[in-house]
Task: structure prediction
Amino acid sequence: MVDGVEFCHNDLFRAVHDIFGHVMLGHGFGPKGEFLAAFCHMHTYSRDVRPILFTEQIGQICWFFYGPHLLDGAGALPGPGDPGHLPPSRRPYPEQKVFAFPARFLDAFTSLFQPERSPDD
Result:
């Protein structure tokens, strides 16, 4: 409870994500910054918890920035200045998710952050 407002576990989880994933490391709040923050935040939890964290963060980030509610009649994502573009400040925030994405999605996500090895490594 802070100033009469009751916080749930997810509120605290989000605060930790923002502090340790964004503020402390200087990652922005656009898609790239959110992906970097989520990747960094994952390493503060055991491997068993990471699929849930992936769902909570990456699933919601993708819906917020690229979800079907943003697409035009042709299925394209309008950009700034295009008719139908909805700036982030006016977008709805996704509902909480209560499932774990299949491991292959988490594996594909984490592989984006692995440095490529040269044949000599």
